[in-house]
Amino acid sequence: MVTLGIFDAFTPQNVQYLLGGLGITVGVSIISVILSFIAGSVIGIVQFERIPYFSKFVGTINNIIRNLPLLLIIFFVYFALPKLGIHLPIFWATVVAMSTFESSMLAEIVRGGLESIDEGQFEGARANGLTNIQTMFYIVLPQAYKKMIPPIISQLISLVKDTSLAMGIVLAEMTYRGQIIYAQNSTYIIPVLIAITLVYFLLNYGLSLVAKWFDHRLA
Amino acid sequence: MTLLQNNFPTFLQGFGYTLLSSIIALIISMILGTFFAILQILPQKWVQKIGNVYVQVFRNIPLLIITFFFFLVVAKVIPMNGFTAGTIALSLYTSAFIAETVRAGILSVDNGQMEGARANGLSFSQSMRYIILPQAFKIALPSLGNQFINLVKNSSILAFVGGLDLMYQGNMVAATTFDTFSTYIIVALFYLVITLPLSYYMQNLERKLKHAA
Fold this sequence. Notes:
heterodimer; A: mainly alpha; B: mainly alpha; globular
C-alpha cells in the first residue's frame, strides 16, 4: 500500500479528535464573547457616565485587568481561586478568565464608541422628553454599537486565537489536542501544526472579512 | 511578603527576561512592521499582495502556534532555545499588527505631502523617509504604544517553551511553594510595573493629540 507520509497523521480517529478540540475552541469563544459583551457594555457605560468615585474605581480595576497578560489571568482563575474556596472545572475556568479579560477590552471599545456619539444626540433625545436611561437605550447605544461592530469582531478574532492559551491549564482545545497527537509520533508535528494553523486562519480570516464588510457598509 | 523575599532573585530574573524579550521583539517588529506597511502602499499590485498576505497570516493565527512552530520545527534545523524561539515568534506576530498601524498612519498623511516632496525633487524612498514616515509615526504613536503593551503581555507566551520569563518563573515558584495565590499576585504586580504607566501615558497622549487636532 502506498502511503503519503504527510497525511498519515490524519487518521479518521485523529481528525475526529481534533475537530472535537475545535468544538471546544468555538464553544469557549462563543460563551466568552456573549458574557464579555454584556459585562463590557456595563463597564463601558459606567465609565462613560462619570458617576462620582464609582466610575473612577471601576475604570481603575478595568485598567489593571486590561494591562495583565491573559495567560496570568487564566492561571490565576484556575490555580489561585481554589485557595479562596472557588473551584471551577477547566472549561468554566477558561470561560471566566477569558470573559474577564475580554470584557475589560470591550469596555474600552464601548466607552470609545459612546464618546464618539455627538452631544446633540443626547440633547435632542432629552428635549424630546426621553429619560436618561431611555436616551441611552433607544438613541445612543444603537448608534454606538453600529460603530463598534468592526472593533468588536477584531476582539472576537483575538478571543478565538487566545483560547489556545488555555492549553496551559490542560483544556483539551484544538492546540492541546494537536500536541497530544504529535507527542505520539514526532513526524506528525509539521502536518498537524499546519492543519491547526489553517483551521485557525480560515476561522479568523472569515471573521475579519465580516468585519471589513460591516466597515464598508457602515462607512 | 516572605514569599516575595525568598524568591526575589527568581522574580527579578523573570522580569529581566520578559523585559529583554519585549524590547528585542519591539525593535524587530517595528522594522518588519514598517517594511510590510510600505509594501502594502507601493503602487505595484503584486508587492501589495505580498505585504497583505504576510499581515493577514500573522494576524489570524495564534501566537502560541507560531511559537511552537519555531520551538518544535525550526529549532530542529537551526538550534535555538525557548527564549529565542518565543522572541522570534513574538516579533513576527507583533509586526503584523504594527504593519496595520503604520499603514493607517501613512494613509492618514495628506497626499499633498508626497506630491510636494516629489515636486521638490526627492525620490520616492527619500520622501518616505524624510517627509511621510516621521509624520505617520507621530499619528500612529498612541496605537504603537498600545502594541508595545500587548507585546509585553504576550511575552508571557515564553512560559510555554521554557523561556525563563516572568510567567515561567511565577509558575515555578507557585509549583514549589504551593502558594499560588500570592505568587500570581506578585507576578501580576511585576507586569503592571511595566504596562500600567505606559498605558496611562498613552491615554494622556491620545487625549492631547485629540485636542491638538
